[in-house]
Amino acid sequence: MRRVPREAHSDARARSTAGLPPDSLARSLLLAASAVAGVRAGQSLTAVLGTALRNETPAARAAARDAAYGTLRDFGCGEFILSRLLERPLPHPETEALLLVALYRLRTRPDSPHTVVDQAVVAAGELANGTFKGLINALLRNYLRQRDALHAAMQDSDEATYRHPQWWISRLRRAYPESWREILAAGNTPPPMCLRVNRRRGTVDDYFARLRAAELPARRLDGDALLLAKPVGVDSLPGFADGLVSVQDAGAQRAAHLLGPVSGERILDACAAPGGKAAHLLETAEIRLVALDVDGKRAQRIDENLQRLGLSAAVVVADCRDTARWWDGQPFDAILADVPCSASGVVRRHPDGKYLRRESDIRRFSLLQSEILDQLWPVLKTGGRLLYATCSVFPEENGAQVDAFLFRWTNARLLEKQSLLPLAHHDGFFYALLEKTS
């Protein structure tokens, strides 16, 4: 698949949309194209959408976000079709991104193809002085004529069929010979929306009743988790602003239960932002929590989340590996090491990962993870627990990492290990609970 050079798209700001009606399809296609172009040039989807949608109406933001996320989840499909329709890549990255967004819309909502083509052409009028309006019209109509043949041809391309980079597909095929197709399929679906009830402010039964009263269908999962039948904005959740509930994947909620905080313990969350797991630990028991994060802006989100929930912790901006700068010498009873990783288990939430990740990143993350573990282990007391956690499905970041750690540290004992592959009701996570024996 052709990669767009980073310098080909210096920023992801939306081009002028002044001439387009606020909630028109043309406007949402153009806004989504700006975001897709930014991701293909190496920027994060969160950042580019934040810029592109800053001044848009709620309806326009929702439509553009849906189109951008869907286009990026469909990694490989649009690129495959474009490679068959274009003699050579377009010299204008945002126009090519507009084609990808329009093709996604045509593939997933085939009920009004002529409207989509028309609105894509209107959107193209806002790019490159309208130079490519005729080309976009011709290419999209050509796609509609050849649609069946193009879709059949996609079966010969792994990237187009499974909608992931080839290296990603190959790694999963080797690691999970029986289930790699299901893992890839899960990564292409919209994610579930799961809630975590703040047990300090109510019970799961009480909040479940609130959801029913608000006509928000849901079902109970394990622990404090409730799975909504369909995602909604947080403003629609009863008592969200008052801290009754948080949005957190059911798989992520396993962390607090596995670490098992006990009232009175001093616990470290070593990579804590944005604070979901830290908050869950505090909701579970009366503990003294130190929440670290190396990024000051992300650490601010920890404070904001805890404030909404009526919780408190010592939030520190620091690199957890540099213990000399932040550790007071008092050993911790327990540590949560939710380490940086490829995020391959949550790619349906962050589909830009399909474009931004490289196979070489797995080795880079593995080295960082082992360094974090080696630096945190000495600050844990004898008899204490460390929960190693990732949101990856790649074994190099998970079981292999823990095996190497146990080989290096003879005073470590594995208490429990859980590997959660992405399913309809939770994302992909890995957990290993370790005990310090001496």
Give the H and E element order: HHHHHHHHHHEHEEEHEHEHEHEHHEHEE
Distance between the termini: 52 Å
Q: Record the strand order, biggest sheet.
A: 7-6-5-8-9-11-10
Assembly classification: single chain
The CATH architecture of the largest domain = 3-Layer(aba) Sandwich
Q: Count of DSSP helices?
A: 18
Q: Roughly what is the average pLDDT, rounded to an integer?
A: 94
- Number of discrete domains: 3
CATH topology of the largest domain: Rossmann fold
List the helices and strands and how they pair.
Blueprint: H1 25-40, H2 45-52, H3 58-73, H4 77-85, H5 93-108, H6 113-124, H7 133-153, H8 158-162, H9 166-175, H10 180-186, E1 194-197, H11 204-213, E2 218-220, E3 225-228, E4 245-247, H12 254-259, E5 266-269, H13 276-284, E6 288-293, H14 296-309, E7 314-317, H15 323-326, E8 332-338, H16 353-356, H17 360-376, E9 380-390, H18 399-408, E10 412-420, E11 429-436
Parallel strand pairs: 5-6, 5-8, 6-7, 8-9
Antiparallel strand pairs: 1-3, 1-4, 2-3, 9-11, 10-11
Helix pairs in contact: 1-2, 1-3, 1-5, 1-6, 3-5, 4-5, 5-6, 5-7, 6-7, 9-10
Structure commentary:
The protein has 438 residues and is α/β, with parallel strands linked by helices. It has 3 domains: 6-162, N-utilizing Substance Protein B Homolog, Chain A; 193-248, Alpha-Beta Plaits (2-Layer Sandwich); 252-436, Rossmann fold. It has helices spanning 25-40, 45-52, 58-73, 77-85, 93-108, 113-124, 133-153, 158-162, 166-175, 180-186, 204-213, 254-259, 276-284, 296-309, 323-326, 353-356, 360-376, 399-408; strands at 194-197, 218-220, 225-228, 245-247, 266-269, 288-293, 314-317, 332-338, 380-390, 412-420, 429-436. The strands form 2 sheets. A 7-stranded mixed β-sheet has the order 7-6-5-8-9-11-10, sandwiched between helices. 45% of the residues are buried.
